[in-house]
Amino acid sequence: MHNLKELQKQQVGLRLPRYLIDDIDEFTQHFSLNRSEVIIEAIKSYIKEQKLNNFYEQFDDSCKQLTSYLSDAQQTDSRLQTLDELINELEHN
Fold it and tell me: Could you tell me if residue 7 is inside a domain?
């Protein structure tokens, strides 16, 4: 959640290609919104999607690192058969 200061609006200048303005205007007429509301929702949606993509990329990288580590650990130390043993090994080495 955002605090009141973060929710305050600030006017900014923005130059957009004409075709985007035309698309925005179609939305404003169809949904009874103003341009600012359409642009705000589009930006929020884009940022949310990018954060989600970033999360999944980091998760994928972490999974690859874990897979690599487990593969190396399995080759060098066959004692690590369970997750508990792996955690114990990581905590003590």
Answer: no
Measure the CA–CA gap between 64 and 56, rounded to whole angstroms.
12
Residue 75 falls inside a structural domain: yes
Residues 6+ apart with CB under 8 A from 41: none
The answer, as to whether pTM is greater than 0.85, is: no
Which residues neighbour 85 within 8 Å (Cβ) at sequence distance 6 or greater?
Answer: 79
Long-range Cβ pairs for the range 87-91 (8 Å, 24+)? none
Number of folded domains that form the chain: 1
SS3 content of the chain, % helix, strand, coil (to 5): 75, 0, 25
CA pair distance 37, 62, nearest whole angstrom: 37
**pLDDT tens figures, 32-63:** 999 999 999 999 999 999 999 999 999 998 98
Q: Which domain holds residue 48?
A: 16-92
